[in-house]
Write a structure and sequence with these properties.
alpha/beta; TIM Barrel; eight-stranded parallel sheet; two-stranded antiparallel ribbon; 8 helices; 10 strands; 17% strand; globular; CutC-like; CutC-like_dom_sf
Length: 251
């Protein structure tokens, strides 16, 4: 981590975790299913990543894709995942929950934060689905979240930049606002300069061809519009280093 800023890289494999650290990431957000915005990873992935990297690993607690309105059974899963991730080396957790009318689910978040203690907790991009971001931010401050990850309630952090700037001004240092969503080498400087953020979140991934020689192109393992079976996305050391350099020069 360079002085004055922190780059968090979201990863879903050991290879990506190692590459992110080599490139200069200050923290990892460990997930599975990045195509769905990130779901809870396996315990095995957490344990092996912790063996290979020294930077903090924050673990996503999200039992499924889709919205952030959870059933009682899904809450049971989240509580158990928090318990397991804490006991197997997570340095922090990333979670969030909303009510049906688009507000932060205060009661559930209090329960999950209590279960997470003493680990620091980030409220994830459920924030981008709230009805009133200014009100939601005050709720997160009062609950005790350490930071909020947001694209400014828009499709990318660049498009949501005006709101990101507003909530950073509103936060007044009481909670960290971390821009994330579509951050690349082409827009990072604008986002940092335009927001005043000191942390940012990215994936910095490149496509990597599968090593498979035999390929059955008639079969897909998921939905019709899933990721290609013979291509991987991994964090790219060069991209991480480039983003690191841009942030260092900007801040």
């Amino acid at each position: 981590m360079a002085e004055g800023f922190l780059m968090e890289v979201c990863v879903d494999s050991v290879e990506s975790a190692v590459n992110a650290e080599r490139g200069g990431a200050g923290r990892l957000e460990l997930c599975s299913s990045l195509l769905e915005g990130g779901l809870t990873p396996s315990l095995g992935l957490l344990q092996i990543v912790k063996r290979y990297v020294k930077i903090p690993v924050y673990v996503m607690i999200r039992p499924r894709g889709g919205d952030f309105l959870y059933s009682d059974q899904e809450v049971e899963v989240m509580r158990k995942d928090i318990e397991l991730m804490k006991s197997h080396g997570a340095d922090g957790l990333v979670l969030g929950a909303l009510t049906e009318d688009g507000r932060v689910d205060t009661e559930l978040c209090m329960e999950l934060l209590a279960a997470a203690r003493p680990l620091p907790v980030t409220f994830h991009r459920a924030f981008d689905m709230v009805h009133d971001p200014a009100v939601a931010l005050e709720t997160l401050v009062s609950l005790g979240f350490q930071r909020v990850l947001t694209s400014g309630c828009d499709s990318s952090a660049l498009e949501g930049l005006p709101l990101i700037k507003r909530i950073i001004d509103q936060a007044k240092g009481r909670i960290i606002i971390m821009p994330g969503g579509g951050i690349t080498e082409r827009n990072l400087q604008r986002i940092l300069e335009g927001s005043g953020a000191q942390e940012f979140h990215c994936s910095a991934r490149s496509s990597k061809e599968s090593a498979m020689k035999f390929r059955n192109t008639c079969v897909t393992m998921g939905a019709a519009f899933s990721a290609p079976e013979y291509g991987l996305k991994v964090a790219d050391v060069r991209k991480v280093r480039t983003l690191n350099a841009i942030a260092r020069n900007t801040l």
